[in-house]
Amino acid sequence: MSASTASISANSVSASLRLSVLDQAPVSEGMSSAQALKNSLDLAVLADRLGYYRYWVAEHHGTQSLACASPEVLIGPIAAATSHLRVGSGGVMLPHYSPLKVAESFSMLSGLYPGRIDLGLGRAPGSDSLTASALQRDRRQRPQDDFPEQLNELLAYLWNEMPADHPFARLSALPGSPELLQPWMLGSSAQSGIWAAELGMPYMFADFIQAAGETVAARYRRDFVASPHWSEARQGVALQVICADTDAEAKLLAASYGMRLIHMHSGRRLDKIPSVETALRFFEQHDLPPSTLPSGRRAVIGSPARVREQIEELAEAYGADEVMIVTIIYDHDARKRSYELIAREFGLV
Fold first, then answer.
1. Is the pTM for the entire model greater than 0.85?
2. Scanning 166, 204, 261, 279, which has the fewest C-beta atoms within 10 Å of its C-beta?
């Protein structure tokens, strides 16, 4: 490929690419969880002003390093504080909940904020096995793995497609009607892509959890079955991104993220996001380069131009028309700066 052809290709990718935010409400050393939640609101207001398209909040349980146990609680205040962003969950871990309860909660949000609410759905527990057990109402036996049935019931409520002879048919009159919300399938495995394709749903692949999901994305697009709600496949990819004014500064900021991941993969608990100084001491003690990441993980790290190049390459590899950016670093101001630099580089502002 010639340099001019490559430039044309990159420009076409960038022109059609939506940029969005995935917020996990990181809790840094010396910070309270309450402050992390306030930081989420602060970042959302900034993202709205910068021109990001979507703002999703995650669901994680039983951890002191992420203050995002209940996305639906954060979605309302974020939607109220912003004007343009679509706001949603990235995602709701459906196995913990009643499909009706999820449908009613998000329908209420959609009624309050018409045309702006998304419901990202996942199958993973968002926690360890002990915490997952604590979340269950009935602990006498292991919960049944009936995610496809849960998902179909939930979509029947949301899309008002419950069969007339179904015992729950009368419950499909949701409190936020007639406003509709947008459901997405989330995942980091082949199975999530298969379900999304079969049901005609948009699909967001979590590359920051499991890298190299390009084949999963390709299979989703190939097997997509058009539905009354989506006529064609809609592919997104969520990436861990750390941007700073220079490559060196970005790599330094990324040390905190790397230390946290190494602890997670080794089964050791790390209560808060470590400072850069703490992380550098850790890497030095273990004779590791500060940029070390565990196997199967990757991150987009660098100056604005370098970050844009990597984002566009990965978006093209995934066939994605949207990139959702998650940034886990110690300093909140540096995190905001990262999103500002990316928005400026892509011309969002």
1. yes
2. 166
